[in-house]
Amino acid sequence: MSRRQLPSEIRKIEVLNRKTGKKVTRYELRMDAGVNQNTGQRQQVKRRYATDREARKALGEIAGGSTDGTFVGRSALTVERACAEFLAGSHSIEPTTRAAYEHALQPLRDRHGDMPVQALSKSDLDRLVNDLVVGTSPGHRRKWVANSINPMLNLISRVLADLVAQGKLTRDGAALVKRLKRSDKELQTFSEADVRKLLKHVENNRLGHAWHLAFSGMRRGEISGLLWSDVDLEDGTVTIRHNRVSVGGQVHNKDPKTETSARTLPLTPALKSALRRAENTQKVERMKLGPDYGPGEHVVVDEAGRPYHPDTLSDFWRELCVAAKVKRIRLH
């Protein structure tokens, strides 16, 4: 039985195999693939395949894609450049969000940055996830958990989906990667005895009011950003309006983390007493330094009236936990 005649777009050729030095048969596909969505120019496809079956399959796929406008020509766009362009195009995000995006994309950029993004496969991403889970990914020896890996995959998916929308990629491979099951890890909290130890330890601590604020449920950024104008000692309330955060070591002032984070809290007798002591202490410090004293607008400041860096508060907190001999729980 004679073989089927090749379509006019496919021709059988002999080429030299560079590894063996011998001639091998290849099937070369040449065809018009319609207008390139990015350049507006017509695009010509020239590809070679080992079998005529592969060439015929590619012919059908390219012809169908060029008809319905879904065909994507080969591109030299790398994973690194795709990530960089995505971040550059994220104009309205907060500095903290941008830092989180950069951190989440770093393992992908480190491993596959030089790879053409069109060559990035589901298998590549599966291997990356597996290595991050066990802590064997170069440059990322700390084991990643579901709470870190799933947002990473979601962000990679956004990068790839954006390229699909631009007509630079045919599909979002990250959408096919299974997300990890989140563990029901019990939230770490202090026991009543630990709280007593800590409060007793800060009775005469200059920053005792900061730790009372932490026990009232305020986050680190909220404590760092709290202003005296937000405190009403007469009515016994404190209003959360500011969030002072650290991004790459730099301090950024922003709104509370969520809409519900902006809130007014009642002052307990112990917290009100701690704030009054802090207010009196800062008045004395202001008198000592005179014009050299800082703005003094923040509730938690150093002896010169300057607000502490949020990371410094975390350092003080760790030292306090060690001194009080209680377990170290991160100051959120």
UniProtKB/TrEMBL annotation:
Origin organism lineage: unclassified sequences, metagenomes, ecological metagenomes
Sorted UniProt keywords: DNA recombination, DNA-binding
Pfam families the UniProt entry points to: Phage_integrase (PF00589)
Gene Ontology BP annotations: DNA integration; DNA recombination
Naturally occurring in which organism (per UniProt): marine sediment metagenome
Descriptive protein name: Tyr recombinase domain-containing protein
Domain Tyr recombinase per the UniProt entry, residue ranges: 185-332
GO MF annotation terms: DNA binding
Residue ranges occupied by any Core-binding (CB) domain in the UniProt entry: 77-164
